[in-house]
Structures are given as structure tokens and as C-alpha cells.
Amino acid sequence: MYLLAIESSCDETSASVIKADGTTVENGETESPSLQILSNRIASQIPLHTVYGGVVPEIASRAHAEAVSSLTYKALSEAGVSLSDIGAVGVTAFPGLIGALLVGVNFAKSLAFANGIPLVPVCHVYGHIAANYFTHPDLKPPFLALVASGGHTSIIYAKSYTEFETIGRTRDDAIGEAFDKVARVMGMPYPGGAEMDRIAYEGDPTALKLPSAAIADDTLDFSFSGLKTAVINHLNTLSQKNIPYVPADIAASFSSAVVSSVVKKLDMALRRTGATRLVIAGGVAANSHIRAALEEYCQKHTNVKLYLPEKSLCGDNGAMIAAQAYFEFLRGTRADTTLNARATMEE
After folding, report:
1. DSSP label at residue 310
2. Cα–Cα distance between 178 and 189 in angstroms, integer?
3. In total, how many domains does the chain have?
4. Which of 89, 154, 263, 316 is 20–30 Å from 114 (CA)?
5. In terms of residue numbers, what domain contains 7?
6. 105 and 56, same structural domain?
7. CA 187, CA 27: separation in Å to the nearest integer?
8. Which residues contact 118 (CB under 8 A, 6 or more apart)?
């Protein structure tokens, strides 16, 4: 079947068409699914938000409204299909910026019901996890997943393609948010995470002693706020005293603290769950330091296999929403005209 999906949870508008096939089993899911991306159009808003140093919700919503219709029809054209070929329309319904989500949800509702196509609401976080199915056709639940992005940091146990349990989370800032805020203080343009990743290779990871973001208790939770604040306070102190610093050293030290925190909590999670598959997802999954550290971890712990998405599928995109929509569709998930967006995971 062909699925069309709309993603508009933050500052990327995306429309994608995928082809999905698989053997349906009794629980409404599928064995050996085959997912193929036919189109994955993305309209980035980074130029609009760079001047503000971060995403401005009102501007994001307006840009989504301007882009979503034409982007969708371009995605259909690129895929070589028409709306009459589409078996289901998936849409990110939560979580995210509420105004941005409403644009995608209302457009998808209108499109689906005007054309008599089933509408499938999708959780943005689970969509990130589903991006891995394109890169790794052999990946099957159960597995452990780290979803790390500008707005989310969660350790999730995937019991099936549609059943998830969040067993660890950040209690404040997300990883990507912390990277961007530290980068902004150092004068790097938004989003600063990619530049932090690059220059960290040129710095000394031991130059600055920083606290761990892995909360020192028996939970699987993180707190990146303290780590971020420690770096920013250090930079502000140096600035007040007119003491120069090496940005690469700051980036290297910060990256090292983040990586060690992530590895520590994931190690705890793997031991507790007994999972033998580790999935990394979300925008921060593109961070080369985190990828390298987890590859090294899995080389040492040979019973754990690591699954990383292609970097092009780490950020927000419609294909990941279409992938999760396929499994939700098989499960029987449908929405009617009362579907509304919500900003959080919880109702």
C-alpha cells in the first residue's frame, strides 16, 4: 500500500510518500515489513529562525501554513502516485509546538476526509524510532531505543511496533536543546549542535571538568540543565574577566560529558531490560561523537547490536511518520474529524 504522511511538529514542514508491504499477523502487525521511500520533501525553516537564535512558534506556524499544501502535491508527484492511490494519510498529532502541529493535523484531516482516505495519527517520538526501519529492514521489536533531539530525550522500550514504554527521560532540557544553547553563548549560529560536533574534534575533552547529566540514582533519567548551566556560567565568568577561551575545548568537554552520561544510562537500561538491540533515533542521533561512543560500546558488549538511522533520516521528516503510520494502520488506529493536536505525550 501507499501512505502519505505530514510532519509539522517544529520547524520543518515535510510531506512523504512511502510504499509499505508485509505479511499481516494476528495482532494486526506485520512480519518482515518492506518499507520504501518514494518521496520525502522537507521545507526547512532554519533561515527564518537563525536571526532569533531559536524557533519562534508563531513564525513556525505561519511558515507551515504557507508550505504544506504545495509540498504535499510535490511529494505525490515525485512519488508518481495520486491521492486515489493512497491507502492512508498519517500525520504527526503529538508532541510538538501546538500551533505548528495544528497546521499539519488540520491539513491532513481535510485532505483525508475530502478524498475518503483513512487518517492515522502518529506520535512524533515513535516516528523517529520508525525511521530506523528504512535503514535496517531486519530490525524487529522488542528493542531499546534512545530518542534524542532538540525537544526530546527519552529511553524507550519498544515491546512491539506499536507498544512503547518510556523507562527514562530528561527531567529538564533535551540533549539537542542543551547543545544549541551552549553554542549560542559561544556565538555560533542556530542550530549550533552540528558546529559543536565538528569543532569538538579539534579540542581537548579534559579542558573543562563538568558534571554528569546522568542523574546519580537508580532511575534511567537525565538532567541536562545543570550541565548546560555549568558551561554557560563558566563562559560568562571568562567573559567578565576578559579571559579568552578555546571554543573547541568547550565543545569537546561538553560533548564528552554528554556522551559519557548517555552511555552510562543506556548501559543501565540494557542490563535491566535484557535487550539485545539498541536503536538510536532523533536529530541528535546524527551526532558523530554519540554514534562513535555507542559503536564502541557495542563492540565491547557483543551481545548488543546497534541500529543507527541514516543521517538524512535523523531530523524531522515525513517518511518516519509514514513508517509509524503503517504499523498503526495495521493495528487499526484511525482518527475522525474530531482529531486534535496536543503539545505533550500525555493526554
Report:
1. -
2. 14
3. 2
4. 316
5. 2-131+317-331
6. yes
7. 52
8. 87, 88, 89, 112, 329, 334
List the Cα angle 59/64/68 in 5-degree steps: 165
Rg (the chain; Cα; Å): 20
The Cα–Cα gap between 113 and 318 comes to 19
Strands annotated E in 95-229: 119-123, 143-148, 153-158, 164-169
The reply to whether 80 and 146 lie within a common domain is no
214 and 252 share a domain?
yes
Nearest Cα to Cα of residue 322 among 47, 3, 46:
3
339 to each of 14, 220, 260, 323, how far by Cα in Å? 20, 33, 41, 20
The helix/strand/coil state of 84 is: helix
Q: 262 falls in which pLDDT band (50, 70, 90)?
A: very high
Same domain, 161 and 301: yes
Kindly state whether residues 192 and 262 are assigned to the same domain.
yes
Alpha carbons 170 and 153: distance in angstroms, whole number: 6
Instruction: Provide the grid cell at 233.
Output: 556560567
Tens of pLDDT, residue by residue over 164-220, are 999 999 999 999 999 999 999 999 988 899 999 999 999 999 999 999 999 999 999
CB atoms near residue 180 (< 10 Å):
24
- Same domain for 184 and 201, yes or no, is yes
Say yes or no: 154 and 175 in one domain.
Answer: yes
Residues 177 and 297 grouped into a single domain: yes
